[in-house]
Structures are given as structure tokens and as C-alpha cells.
Amino acid sequence: MDVMASGHEQVVFCADPESGLRAVIAVYSTALGPALGGTRFFPYASEDAAVADALALSKAMAYKNSLAGLDLGGGKAVIIGDPRTDKTEALLRAYGRFVEALGGRYLTACDVGTYNADLDVVARETRFAHGRSEVYGGCGDSSVLTAFGVFQGMRAAAEHRWGKPTLSGRTVAVAGVGKVGSHLVDLLVTDGADVVVTDVDPAAVDRLLARHPSARAVADTATLVRTPHDVYAPCALGGALDDETVAVLPAEVVCGGANNQLAHEGTAQLLEDRGILYAPDYLVNAGGVIQVEDERHGFSFARAEAKATTIFDVALRVFDAARTEGVSPAVAADRLAEERMRSVGRLATIRLPR
Fold first, then answer.
1. How far apart are CA 276 and CA 249, in angstroms?
2. CA 37, CA 72: separation in Å to the nearest integer?
3. Fewer CB atoms near the end CB (10 Å): N or C, the chain?
4. Within a 13 Å sphere around the CA of 154, how many CA atoms are in the beta-carbon half?
5. Are 197 and 217 in contact (CB under 8 A)?
6. How do residues 15-59 score in pLDDT, each as one tens digit?
7. Which of 76, 87, 164, 307 is catalytic?
8. Range of the domain at 110
């Protein structure tokens, strides 16, 4: 793996043998501001796998923050280990000291395997931990606005594809009904959609069906992607859209909360070739980072929700640009994000007189 050729500004390897901490912090870009991105605590099979994930996720965060109109760069951290058995106060505090040592170039928050309470512990060692518990003045659970943003992107996709910004009367297949997926189902049912779901955790499905008896469940994702539906919403882990899945999808729209949904660079074109409208994941799932970013200004849920509502308008811009330029929405979104990093980021080089 050629880390130096990845385009990242900085990659930091963190080790504290006494607590067992092994982590990687990747800063892709600070062109628009400090690099904000969550901390993923995961039992990676190898150090190379951890580094690869940190590099990919940090780049995606730079694009996500840019497209969301935030004055933030992109970064990500991964802690190697099983959060169920390896997570301790000592480890989290050691990690916090590494974050603090970067002096604010990297701002950390929650991700897979980390929660608000964990960030409260990390914050005992650093000023640069966000996504904290509400009792500490933080934004709390960011999955609420993550789901809200996905719903706004889905409404925009419906407007672009069917002429109306609603999912009423449409069937939406949701893969993964954890925090984000379950909140998304709440919004879809309220909007009048028919919902079919699956999850690797049967208890999560049971909880959702108890709340929404009108929803249907299928055994697994392989079954879900072959079940008739209009919109496919991947809301679990990345890589959900591989060649096999794209080949059998009956959906006209793909719009979900999972990160890094495209299995490889050519997947976006495969979706385009099949006439499936793809809402880029880092565009529509930006509600969570919008919620976390607002914490920096003294958190206001109403203000963060208003900002997340703009995902609808940005998604329409992306879809329109893709049609005008004859490219996939993934390419159009990348171009818009890169243009903002170039045009706004250059202001950092303009030094005002002291």
C-alpha cells in the first residue's frame, strides 16, 4: 500500500502498549478547515486493512463536508480491536492524547464502535472531541439527522425521477435497521411509503416491526435485493453495491445511509447503465456530520435540522448536473465537492494584514 501516493496530508500511527491502543488517524484535507471525521473501533484483520479503511473514509469525509457546505476538511480515525472487549477508559484517554497532540488539525467524533459516552471520555484528554452526550452540552445521537438527511436525498431523487418529492405509494427496501435505518423507516412510513426490511440482527427487525406492523421483513439482503421495490436503501456497512447486487436490483433509485456503498469505481457507471438513479452516499448521509459540526457553535437541534434540510436542494443540483454533463451522479457530486475545495480552500492562502 503506497500511503504517500494516496493524496493525504497526514497519516498518524498511534500506539500505547500499556492500554493496548493501536490506532491510525488519517487527515485527507484541511483546505476548508480542520479535518472532522469519526473514530471507528473495529477488529480489523490486519494493520493494512485498518490503514486502507482510514484512508478511504477520511477522503470520503473531505468530500462529504465540502458538499454539505461546511468549513471543515476531512479526516478519520480507526482503532484496531473489538470494542466489546478491548475498549477501556485508559485506551480511550490514550487515544484522546494523540488527538490533542495534532493541535486541532483533526476533530474526532463517533463512528462504528464508538458512542457519545466514549467521546466524553476522549474529551477528558482533548479539546477536539465532538459528538458528545447532551448532558455535557453535546449534540447527542447523530443518527437522527443522518436518517433525516437520507430522507431528504430520497425525496429529491423521487422529484427527479417521478416528478414529486414524496415516497408515498412507493416501496422502499431498507437493508439494515439499526439506528439510522430505523429512524429512516419512521420517516418513510409517515410519508406513506411501503417498507420492506432486513437486518443481520433479528432483534432489530423485531423492534422495528413492533413499531411499524405495516412493514415487511425478509430473511437476508440477498432476498431483499430481489424483492420488488422502487427504492433501495443500503443502511449497513460499505460495499453494498457490488456487481451482483446491481445486476439484480429492481429499484429505480438507490439512496441509503451506509458509507462507501460502491464496491469499486466502476459501480456508479453500472448503475447508470441500468437506468438506476444513484444518490451519492456521502451527500445524503451528511446530516450526522452537520449535527456534530453544529456542536462547535453551542448545539441547536433546530439549526442543525434546518441545515440538513438543504441536502434536498444539493441533491437536486447533483442530479441536474449529472444529466447536463452526461455523467453519473457520483461523478457530478465529486466535481462539485472538488470545486468547492479548490475555490474556497484557496482563501486560506490569502493572508490578511495583522
1. 9
2. 10
3. C
4. 31
5. yes
6. 999 999 999 999 999 999 999 999 999 999 999 999 999 999 999
7. 76
8. 3-62+72-136
